[in-house]
Amino acid sequence: MSTNNTSNTHIIHAIPVDPLTGSISVPIYQTATFVQDAPGVNKGYDYGRSGNPTRKALEELVASLEDGTHAYAFATGLAAIDAVVKLLSAGDEIIAVDDIYGGAYRLFTQVYEKFGIKVHYVDTSDLEAIVQHINDKTRFIWLESPTNPTLKVSDIAAIAGLIKDSGIQLVVDNTFATPIAQQPLNLGADIIIHSGTKYLSGHSDLVAGLVVVKEERLAERVKFIQNATGAILGPNDCWLLVRGIETLNLRFRHQSATALQVAKFLETHPEIEEVYYPGLSTHPNHEIAAQQQNGLFGGVLSFTLKNDSVELADKIVCSTRYFKLAESLGGVKSLICSPPQMTHKSIPREKRLQAGVKDSLIRISIGIEEAADLEQAIATGLNTGVLALQEAVAIA
Fold it and tell me: Which residues pair with 239 in a beta bridge?
């Protein structure tokens, strides 16, 4: 068997055959509680919140993919983020990537800020910017790499080296890269977060979150929070997520190859101002991305328009065949969205602009369609949007 823990062989055979029946598919243990032999004496499970065999199969699978020791499945990606923040105490501080996911920004500012958790937003692809914000209250460096939605890439190993032996922990949201491209724990990170809703599921049919760690004491703390606060992933969704992961390697590699082709196409289009995709040689973090992500750059890219208007962006996202206008990403069907009005609307406009999220920024998530079909759909959508806006201006 291949020793690569993200190979097709490893993924498929890391999913156990049911020892009771021989079922090749992980059984769905749809139960709230488990009968005990005597008070406190059971077969490894006592209550559905505390543990479930289907959830255990998922958690062990994801831990193996990330080369971690423990993984914990939560009801949503934000529930996973929330669990990690609960490791902190009042007065603690986080240094977070500046173009952070809007849901995380909302959680930090509208929920945890009032409990005394302070967050500094910086461009974490700039090591000096991180150094300038570290103080004796810093507890987490919080990365998305690549980021959502401008696809900035941070040097995980360099940042881990920067804070080594400082007591500061490195948290990496690995949703965009997936363990197929990078394994942050092996680069020095302490905690990995995933929105399992995205690539791990791959079919846009569930919401889920995961936390992966390597250090035993940290694992115990996350497990305690998962059980104590109860935001667990149900057994049916755990089963769906296991099934989705079976094809993760195949899907992600295909989507990455198609995204690179589409990104190169967009670079040549006269209506496009800038394309954000780390697979392009023009991307400022291309070299570190190529090294850190094993030459795989993912299926998400963004672009801005020379006519930097919300009106034009709206017309384009509503006129692009094959790309469904929806939030989320990583599924088998291509999606398109306007982050300033959708995924990142909760972030004030001035902060979005400071982080490089312009009003006309459009994010696309490449599915498993053919690249030529997607290129044609984008070209048609751009042309349709421009003509529609010109007609609206003429009428006005």
Answer: none
Instruction: Check residue 338 and give its pLDDT.
Output: 94
Tokens of 260: 């690179």
Q: Look at residue 1 in the predicted model and tell me its pLDDT.
A: 34
Told to judge if 105 belongs to the known catalytic residues of this protein, a careful annotator would answer no
Q: Which of 82, 123, 155, 173 is catalytic?
A: 173
Confidence (pLDDT) at 343: 85
CA dist list (Å): 142 to 108, 188, 190, 206: 12, 13, 11, 25
CA 277, CA 265: separation in Å to the nearest integer?
Answer: 12
Q: Is 198 a catalytic residue?
A: yes
Residues of the chain with pLDDT under 50: 1-2
Q: Which residues contact 73 (CB under 8 A, 6 or more apart)?
A: 55, 58, 59, 62, 196, 208, 209, 210, 232, 233, 238, 241
101 catalytic, yes or no? yes
Same-domain status, 82 and 133: yes
User: Peptide bond before 340: cis, by omega within 30 degrees of 0?
Assistant: no
The pTM for the full model equals 0.95
214/259 same-domain check: no
Domain span holding position 135: 8-245
138/159 Cα distance (integer angstroms): 14
Q: Mark whether 173 is an active-site residue.
A: yes
